[in-house]
Write a structure and sequence with these properties.
The chain contains ten helices and nine strands. It is α+β, with helices and mostly antiparallel strands. Helix 2 crosses helix 3. The longest helix has 26 residues, at 115-140.
Length: 256
């Protein structure tokens, strides 16, 4: 189901989370703050594929995370076609947003072939998100405008990790990873695809966030159900664009 990177153990996750919350931290400081011995820390820093993917070391031997594990998530814009607050997103008209998307996708190396079909899917995705935030503003007020949103996140620094997320919506303590398909029927392979990158997103965003995957079928209407992920006992929500607010309510409980 996932790529070749072995999902990190608790020690690697703790080291990674500390690095990604800091402004640069040395190995001895990591060891002291986590009550670990230096050998364990050095082995993780220099041998773990995880560290090679989402952390880096500067000339003064300080370690940094490529995406900070605090709001705002500095670094996320370097891997996204578009990144900003929801307030910034909804304030942009369609053409201005699309121009930003194309420029951002070019910067991150996103393949923009099949321009006509891709631009149509971009516009369709934007329309669904605009409707979502219009719904949420009526339900919970303006607080959702302070959330963050990223379109077309592409993380592929080396051979171990490949994350391709259509849309990430980042609340105070949750990351909704939304996979969009311009279809009206559920495909089990696309359910698997929607869940595929969750373990890596959990590591990137850290222990303060729950990662929630969902499949959005924009050709459907009045659809909201939970579907089994492959042969596992786990399920994820599948919805039409007009019912996307239900995914957020399911995990945030703002409707009675």
């Amino acid at each position: 189901m996932y790529s070749g990177l072995k999902i990190a153990d608790d020690t690697d996750r703790a080291i990674c989370a500390l690095i990604c919350r800091s402004d640069g931290i040395k190995a001895r400081e990591i060891a002291n703050q986590l009550s670990l011995d230096r050998t364990t820390v050095n082995h993780a820093l220099y041998s773990s594929p995880l560290m090679q993917e989402i952390c880096w070391q500067d000339a003064e031997y300080r370690w940094h995370g490529i995406i900070r594990q605090e709001r705002p998530h500095y670094g996320l814009q370097e891997f996204s076609g578009y990144y900003g607050t929801v307030r910034e997103f909804v304030a942009l008209d369609e053409e201005a947003w699309l121009e930003r998307m194309v420029e951002g996708c070019t910067d991150i190396g996103r393949n923009l072939n099949d321009t006509r079909g891709l631009m149509h899917s971009f516009r369709d995705c934007r329309a669904q998100m605009m409707r979502l935030f219009d719904d949420l503003r009526h339900m919970i007020g303006e607080s959702c405008l302070n959330w963050e949103i990223a379109f077309e996140m592409r993380l592929k620094r080396a051979r171990h990790v490949r994350i391709y997320a259509d849309v990430l919506v980042i609340t105070e303590d949750k990351v909704f990873s939304l996979e969009f398909k311009m279809k009206d029927e559920i495909d089990p392979d696309e359910v698997l695809q929607s869940a595929k990158y969750c373990p890596y997103l959990e590591i990137i965003f850290g222990p303060g966030y729950d990662v929630i995957p969902a499949l959005v079928l924009t050709g459907a209407s009045e659809m909201f159900e939970f579907v089994r992920i492959g042969r596992s006992d786990a399920v994820l929500p599948v919805c039409s664009g007009d019912m996307l607010f239900n995914v957020f309510d399911e995990y945030m409980k703002f409707l009675n």
